[in-house]
Amino acid sequence: MRRPTLADVGAAAGVSAKTVSNVLLGRLGASEATRAAVLAAIEQLGYRVNMAGRGLVSGRTGRVAVVVPNLYQPYFAELAERLIHALEERGCTTMLRVAHDREAELAAVLGPTTATVDGVIVSPHFLSGDSLAERTPPRPVVQLGSAPTPLRDCVVMGERAGSEAMTRHLLESGRRRIALVWNNAPGTAPQGDRFEGYLAALAAYGVPRDDALFVSGSDWDRRASGYEAMVGLLRQKVAFDAALCVNDAIAVGALRALHSFGRRVPTDVAVTGFDDTDESEFTSPPLSSVSPEQPVMVEAAVRMLLERIYGYAGPVREVRTNAHLVLRASSLPA
Amino acid sequence: MRDVAALAGVSVKTVSRVVNMEPHTRPEVVRRVRAAIAELEWVPNAAARTLRTGRTGLLGVGVAELRRPYLATLVEAIVAEADRRRIEVAVEPTHGDARRVRDLFDSCGPVFDAVVHIGGLPPGVDLGGALEDRPVVVVQGGTELAGVDRVDDDVVEAVVLVARHLAVMGRMRPVLLGPDRARRSDDDPDRPSRAMRGALASAGIDADAVLAVAVGRPADRGAGAAAAAAVLDAMHDVDALLCVNDEVALGALHVLAARGLDVPGRVAVIGYDNLDDGRFSAPALTTVDPGPQRLARVALELLADRLAGTAPPHPRVVTSPVDLVRRESTLGEVLL
After folding, report:
1. Which residues, in sequence order, are bridge partners of residue A93?
2. Paired strand residues for B289
3. Which partner from A196, B51, B152, B316 sits 20 to 30 angstroms from A269, CA to CA?
4. A74-89 vs A294-309: helix axis angle to the nearest 10?
5. Sequence-separated (6 or more) residues with CB below 8 Å from residue A18
6. Which distant-in-sequence residues (6+ apart) come within 8 Å of A311 by Cβ?
7. What is the CA radius of gyration of chain B?
8. Is B177 in contact with B243 (CB distance < 8 Å)?
9. Least Cα separation, residue A255 to chain B (angstroms)
10. Are the beta carbons of B130 and B136 closer than 8 angstroms?
11. H-state helical runs in A25-65
12. A175 or A55: whose pLDDT is higher?
């Protein structure tokens, strides 16, 4: 069978080949409806971009680097897979980098370890905006999640809104002593959008902040960290009736620690996570969590990167996405 | 290399470790070896390092999907091992689709220096020329795969460990949720594999009475919960669930908890994969650890030899040891 061409896709979608090309390249201008029609036609016809042809014309490789801090956190494995598929839909191949530390993250963004790609989508954990201040990446970079920076296009997760909504949910169901099981390094104070959301909800209910309720484990995102942080809290003999956990992995560890120490969830302590990973539905009890709406984040990041790769040179953009609560048994009223 | 080793006062193996930037070498030893290399102006054999200096420097990794936590763990181990060897990795989710897998193998050469494929190959995928023209290693692709370098976890040892553990703890009426890992294509799909039946019989369990129940795809927590619910409805005397993987086992634990059935008092549960999730479930999950880091290391070693031309002309098969991790879902509350 003949390989479908750009013109075939255009005919099926009822638009010109040029419009198909614009959608594929992520150029501005096509309406959402046109975009959807073109993507549906591509899916239906099984059209694949001829990267060799594209590379000959542009000198581009058609390869995009996706940088995540790890894959053992289900959140990042899911995110990486969604990004790979979204890029593949646009005819790009993906080089997946797992950056275990700040140096690896910086090297991936600045180029030494991603020299053969057209652009980079980074879901950073270690990088802050200023660590790139002196050096400009040699190729387009889009940041997905974490604190935004004026240095590059960013997709900002609804961290503050999600965290505030979850804290409000706990307060509405009568909880007043809400512990934070967090990801700050031991000896430092919690910070960031999720923390701000928590404080805003407390303030709205007139509940005073109590730093004795803030704990964190020795690592930022392992189930074991949630376990050890919760053990630490339980040993301090501080009264608490809820635990707002910074992510699902931490919450799973905290749940298990509470179980081991004979505290009932949610009767004695309500527990909540963040990320709404596949795991949260099947924990014991099932875990209330915040869904960061990954598909929307991924779509925005891929679109902005391809626009940059194909020549958009306008000011840095910031796309803010939403988050919504997924409530399960772990936070039912006592 | 011998001269370098002699001057540095270490073994040839240690020099090789330093040159290949492998971990677990003390800093002062690294310094001594580097000094010796500099003094002798020794240059490592380029052919032996092709994987780092090959045309594209890129390793393709084919995996069904990253959303399965064990597959993500194995990919992460392969990426870490490749990083250590200064090789870049492109991960391609294949969803077990023959066209995607063929595309991946066809990219070996033009795009990738080599390919690691995780899991069994879908029907209709031809591995012709896998040894010479396109270096491919299959990890955990099943013991029946021929004509390609592969590394597998020791599934036969795994079923022996599981059967003995069951018998020792007096569990005589187990049911399999999904096939056991030693299953071969000519085994009866509704029964344990021949290897598992042999292991059960040796342990004193009536293997003929043991059924294997199908699990939906993907074999995740939801599928495990559904399969466990069906078994509990139909077979009231089941005293152990042997699950095809940890996700299915965690789904089974979820259903048992929802029904108020004590684990392991009423039913013991065993998984496979040693996911981090299972350490923190309540109860913590007994499981088989297939050793993903070891599998990743062997896979990259097999590829490096193949690319360097130092591998034999026939396919190589490595069987990597497994470990039974005993936790609360079979032992009960443990004071460790």
Report:
1. A63
2. B323
3. A196
4. 50
5. A10
6. none
7. 23
8. yes
9. 8
10. yes
11. 32-45, 51-58
12. A175
Q: Report the complex ipTM.
A: 0.76
Coil, strand or helix: which one is B179? coil
Strand spans (E) along chain A? 63-68, 93-98, 119-122, 141-144, 153-156, 178-182, 214-216, 242-245, 270-272, 289-291, 318-320, 324-326
The confidence score (pLDDT) of residue B45 equals 46
Of all residues in chain B, the one with the smallest CA distance to A63 is B90
Amino acid symbol at A289: S
Determine contact, residues A273/A311, Cβ cutoff 8 Å. no
- Of the candidates B76, B220, B254, the beta carbon closest to that of A284 is on B254
Question: How far is it, in rounded angstroms, from Cα A85 to Cα A79?
Answer: 10
Cβ of B282 and A77 within 8 Å?
no
Express each pLDDT in B172-184 by its tens digit. Answer: 999 999 999 999 9
Contact yes or no for A94 and B73 at CB 8 A: no
Q: What is the percentage of chain B residues whose pLDDT exceeds 90? A: 63
- What integer pLDDT is reported at residue B19 of this predicted model? 67
Query: Which of A52, A58, A41 is closest to A6 using CA atoms?
Result: A41
Contacts of B73 in chain A (CB under 8 A): 71-72
All structural domains of chain A:
6-48 (1.10.260.40), 55-157+293-322 (3.40.50.2300), 159-291 (3.40.50.2300)
Q: Between vectors from CA B333 to CA B327 and to CA B334, what angle results, nearest 5°?
A: 65
Q: Cis before residue B23, ω within 30 degrees of 0?
A: no
Are the beta carbons of B42 and B28 closer than 8 angstroms? no
Q: Which helix (H) or strand (E) holds B134?
A: none
User: A74-89 and A248-260 helices cross at what angle (nearest 10)?
Assistant: 160
Contacts of B223 in chain A (CB under 8 A): none
Query: What whole-number distance in Å separates Cα of residue A25 and Cα of residue A6?
Result: 12
Q: Average pLDDT of B314-332? A: 95
C-alpha angle A190/A185/A269, rounded to 5°? 60
Rg (CA), chain A: 22
Q: How far is B242 from B264, CA to CA, in rounded Å?
A: 13
Structure tokens at B308: 């360097």
Preceding omega of A208 cis (within 30 degrees of 0) = no
Q: Interface of chain B against chain A, CB under 8 Å? A: 56, 58, 65-67, 69, 72-73, 75-76, 79-80, 83, 88-93, 111, 220-222, 225, 250-251, 253-254, 257, 276-277, 279-282, 284
Q: Strands B323-325 and B287-289: what pairing?
A: antiparallel
The C-alpha angle with vertex A240 and arms to A238 and A245, in degrees rounded to 5, equals 110
Quote the CA–CA distance of A120 and A152 in Å, as a whole number.
11
- Report whether B247 contacts B265 (CB < 8 A): no
Ranges A155-169, A260-274, A300-314, B81-95: which has the least confidence? B81-95
Give the span between the Cα atoms of A316 and A298, in whole angstroms. 18
